[in-house]
Amino acid sequence: MPDTASFGMTLIKLRRAAGLTQEQLAQRCGLSARGVGNLERGDRHPRRVTVQLLADGLDLPGADRAELLDAARRSRLERHEGRAPAIPAEPDLVGRAAERALIHDHVAGAGPPLLVLTGQIGIGKSRLLAEASARARAGGMVVLAASCPRHGAEPYAPVADALARRVRDHPRVGGPAAGGLAWLLPEMGTGEPAPARPHRRVLFAEAARFLGALGERAGALVVLDDLHWAGPDALALLVSLLQDLPPGRVRFLAAYRDTETAPSGPLADALLDLVRHGLLARLPLVPLAEADAGVLLDKCAGGDVDTPARERVLRLAGGLPLFLVQLGHALGGGHDAAGELPWGLAHAVRRQLGSLPPPTVDVLTVLAVGQHRLSVAVLAAAAGLDPDDVPDILAPAHAVRLLDENADGVRLTHELVAEVINAGLQPSRRHVLHRRLADALGPAPGGSRAAAAYHYTHAQDPERAAQTLRHAAEQASRQAAHDAAAQHLGDLVALLERTGPRTAVAEAAEDLANALAAAGRYDAALAAAERALLGYREDGDEERRRMVIARIGHFHYQRGTPREGLALLAPTLADDRPEESTVRLQLARAANLYQSTRYRETVDVCTAAIAAATAAGDDHGLAGGHLRRGLATRLLGRNAAALADLHTAAATAELCGDREIVVRALTGVAVVHHYRGDLVRADRQYARILQLAEELGDRELLSRAVCNLGDSATYLGHWRLALRRFDRALELASHGSSPMCESMALIGRGTLLSACGKHDAAREDLTRVIRLGRDSDNIDLVRNATAQLVESDVRTGRPEHGVARLAPLLDLPGEHTWQLTDALPFLAEAQLAAGDPVAAARTARAAAARAVAIEHGIARTEALRVLGAAAAARGAWPEASATLEEALGLAEAAESPYLTARVHASRAKAAADRGDERAAATDHATAEDLFTALRRDAGTTEN
After folding, report:
1. Span 245-256, mean pLDDT?
2. How far apart are CA 280 and CA 106, in angstroms?
3. How many Cβ atoms sit within 10 Å of the Cβ of residue 401?
4. Residue 195: strand, helix, or coil
5. What is the reported pLDDT for 915?
């Protein structure tokens, strides 16, 4: 052993040479298995008496005993000198000096918080991660490590797995009682969780708090392997942690196979987002150079390899460390390189397996079929063994480095080993092992239902597979992991299409459609709903067919395709029946009418739906009818009636457990308060609504909630926060195809960018909204975005363009009470800037009257501001002064720095027109101070 070897590595080598597990050595020495593990990992320094016990327990001869004692002496010297023990390079890390240096710098705090290692299978990613973990532990950092299994991953694996391991191994540091971790790590609890659903935001925030606390003293390192198998929910958690945690306190290191990553899949999208925010650095790994490959081959073979064998092995391995390591070990085992040199990794693995005892090979076969790490209890149950016998049976496999064992369980060192074993299994034998694994995983503590379902499926037991897939989907849904739920339900549909009755397929497809819609994947939701529709039609179940048609209609509303939704619903609604489905069909029609800005029709349809739901005792339908009618009534300018409907909807939905309607109704109430000018109250309501939306995990609701908070932050003067919220809302909307959610966020961001002087970027956002509005038949979106473009036209000295752009949209037929009131002040300001104060006053006066009638405090403030400026331009000084004073009072009562700054700017212009230079200077300075503070908060300056 080289002199630089640590005590831990020396102990590992001698223990493995003795053929002992940690538990066996601990038993011989009278120590704990954890204590032996701590010594091997370098987490503890060895005491003299402990070293003597270990030497006696290993029954070491003189030379080996001296080596162990010398390693212990060096460890004590390093501790007294304040130096961390050196972590030597492992034999398999030949030729990776530059990569190791970069990783070391990253862990030490250089660069973005996440470094990802990429490359094909066998390139050496996991080895580098392992060395980085060892170095970090030696330096005093807390290391949390996990890898994502290929099949049956839990919703938030591998991030949650890393947290779970830390909680389990260090229960006093933090546990499932620590807030949201109990929901994120349900397997760590001692009983059933509380009935309340988890707050996804709280889940992520609690995980960030936990990691941040771990890293307070010496830093923490989170190591995640096989990230290419992580699902969207796990990636969302990882992105959230990277955004929320201090980069100097917690570092992240991950690896994935870029050869198995789709260019537009969840991982690719998450990585692109992290790069865009400066949170990610990438380290691609390439095959070893020929010289380095030769050195690695010699090391693993235990000596020089003759030239013919070297040439053939190097040509075969292609510089992949995994091939070189396995082939080198095979050669070192005494195989004839001249005549029996393995020509591929499979042959090398088969020869290694052939040298092992049959019971060991049997257990390895169970691991190969299992595909990922298994606990000793599960492994023993599946193999039909006593758990106490498993360590002895696995010892020969440990000796040849075929196994990776930690506190979470055992797995094969390389996936290719599993592939070689599986390739030699007869189908009947494979089916038996899949069933044993499924039976063992089901009742195991922390067992994965998803993994059990996978094994039941491959055991040709469709009934049990279907049952476990349903349970896995329910568990994912409870954790608001809708993508994971959709994955399980998709597998269930595929399974039932092969084995189940038509009704079961239709029911599963309907559940899949709902999960996909909750994940914001509306096109896929429509396809799944069509599959359910076909099944119910074939079964002759007319009521359920009509219910699915109503659901499809609602998907069209969410997707922003109301024409298609109304066309789909019309034939079915013509067949009026006194059934629950009729109420659902009416509500779906109302939603699409609302999307098409046909608000009076929406009210009429909802009134009929409310009557039908009341007669049928349908509380869900009743809540939905009051919700949709309340939203439409608000846009018709009847706030009192709207609030009555919305409060009824929320109360009824709360009683019948329809939390989606509760969120939508409360949102409608908060919007009324916002536009009345009660901005602080509305902001508090929006924050609570976001918490409720996060509990549900529905991306459409989340996007709307985040966007509303962005609007609130704009008016309350938190512009940096507003920009972040609009970007987040757009990110959520991008997962699906909801033009309404995307448009709301684009309008909010475009408005803010224009106020910051970023007119080109603002026009890009707002022009896109106009296209989306036209495509979805939503004239209100077109009008709203156009009004904001007019504001940009005025600021860039082109008010005539603004008047020509907006005026035609205000004369369109339809029901536009609310949105028309919103747009009129923008037209008035453009008219004033274009030199027509009379037209501006007429337009602003109409806007102010409308705003009073519908209690639109923000529009009233803007209308009075422009009306006062128009009066000043006409020389009507008393009217100008009184009107602008009233506007300022409204802006200050709303506690809005943005509105206040706009009014002061108009007052400055009016004072200048009057020739009052002192008043003009005072108001101008106040406006500029406010605008400068707002733009500085946003990190922008006006062009």
Report:
1. 91
2. 11
3. 16
4. coil
5. 92
Indicate if the pLDDT at residue 340 is higher than 70: no
Per residue in 361-394, pLDDT tens? 999 999 999 888 898 999 999 999 999 999 999 9
Q: CB count, 10 Å around CB of 896?
A: 24
SS3 letters across 209-238: HHHHHHCCCCCEEEEEECHHHCCHHHHHHH
CA dihedral in degrees (665, 668, 670, 673; nearest 10)?
A: -140
Give the span between the Cα atoms of 378 and 351, in whole angstroms. 27
Q: How many CB atoms lie within 10 A of CB 507?
A: 20
Kind and range of the H or E run holding 253: strand 250-256
At residue 116, the pLDDT reads 97
pLDDT of residue 512 exceeding 90:
yes
Within 13 A of 197's CA, how many CA atoms are on the CB side? 20
Pairwise CA distance, residues 412 & 397, whole Å: 9
Q: Which two tokens stand for residue 585?
A: 């069909």
What is the amino acid identity at position 777? D
Instruction: Please state, in angstroms and rounded to a whole number, the distance separating the CA atoms of residues 505 and 492.
Output: 8
**3-state SS class at 508:** helix
| Residue 411: its H or E element | strand 409-412
- State the Cα–Cα distance between residues 769 and 762, nearest whole angstrom: 11
Query: How is 81-135 classified by DSSP, letter by letter?
Result: TTPPPP-PPPGGGTT-HHHHHHHHHHHTT-SSSEEEEE--TTSSHHHHHHHHHHH
**Could you give the CA distance from residue 287 to residue 93 in angstroms, rounded to a whole number?**
12
3-state secondary structure of 544: helix
Q: Residue count of the chain, please give it.
A: 943
Find out whether 40 and 53 touch, Cβ atoms under 8 Å: no
The Cα–Cα gap between 114 and 812 comes to 53
- Sign of the torsion formed by the C-alpha atoms of 27, 29, 31 and 35: negative
pLDDT at 90: 45
The CA distance from 698 to 668, in Å, is: 17
What is the bridge-based pairing of β-strands 409-412 and 403-406? Answer: antiparallel
Distance CA 846, CA 864 (A): 10
- Cα–Cα distance, 861 to 867 (Å, whole number): 10
Q: Which pLDDT does position 605 carry in this prediction?
A: 96
Question: Is residue 397 scored above 80 in pLDDT?
Answer: yes
Q: Are 562 and 592 in contact (CB under 8 A)?
A: yes
Distance CA 925, CA 171 (A): 59
User: Quick one: tokens of 437?
Assistant: 């694994």
- Maximum average pLDDT range among 85-94, 227-236, 571-580, 862-871: 862-871
- Do residues 453 and 469 lie in contact, with contact meaning Cβ atoms separated by under 8 Å? yes
Q: How confident is the model at residue 339 (pLDDT cuts 50, 70, 90)?
A: very low
Backbone angles phi, psi at 756, to 5 degrees: -90, 0
Residue 825, CB half-sphere, CA atoms under 13 Å: how many?
Answer: 26
Closest CA relative to residue 843, chosen from 870, 818, 819: 870
pLDDT (tens digit per residue) in 132-143:
999 899 888 999
Give me the residues paired with residue 374 across strands. Answer: 410
Query: Considering only CA atoms, which of 279, 305, 284, 278 is closest in space to residue 293?
Result: 305
Which two structure tokens, joined as six digits, stand for 153? 């991953």
